[in-house]
Amino acid sequence: MALVVTQNVKKNFTTGDVTVPALRGVSLEIQPGEFTALTGPSGSGKTTLLNLLGGLDVPTEGQILMNGRTYTGMKKNELSDFRLHHIGFVFQAYNLIPVLTALENVEYILMLQNIPSQERRERSAHLFAEMEMEDLLHRFPRELSGGQQQRVAVARALVTNPDIVLADEPTANLDSDSAFRLLDIMAEMQQKRKTTFLFSTHDPRIMGRAKRIIRMTDGQIQEEKKSGGGRKKA
Length: 234
Hints:
Number of helices: 7
Structural class: alpha/beta
Strand order of the largest sheet: 6-7-8-3-9-10
CATH superfamily: P-loop containing nucleotide triphosphate hydrolases
């Protein structure tokens, strides 16, 4: 069964008397364990689609289902709880809490799930070890490079064992070495944990690693193709 299904999803944005269609009827399926990239020019709708899949916005028309469960009609608090337990997010701007250490930033999401303190500390520390980031445990975000902050953000997205991780331009602020290291870690975690990753990106470094590429234009899917993936460094 497909993990994520969208059925004729449309999204309009209205400013005054002007309505702009951001998505014009998108239907797709994401299978469990996929490492997929949504790509296309600015304004193509890829970030809008990612936000809808993450429950950060609601479609104007159409249905979105995850594991056969629709969440397009959920109330705000239900949607928030659904995101917390089923979806991991990685943003372009890292979004770490500056007064918390790297470990505490990862623990924080488990605290929101009401996980006991000892368990959340053990789970978070284990993930840091799995990602070979033990040296970052007790550093604050201001003490981390951009690449290190983004790796912590990936750990925060993974620690809840979500159904899917949605990554919006995760390499946009990184140099090539940091970007490739981040992608190596994400690909390794996908292999180990069978986590489903969906990227919104125009970065060829991500597209070179993705096993499936979905190209969008003017709010519609233009084409899809499978890829062998693998590290491709210029």
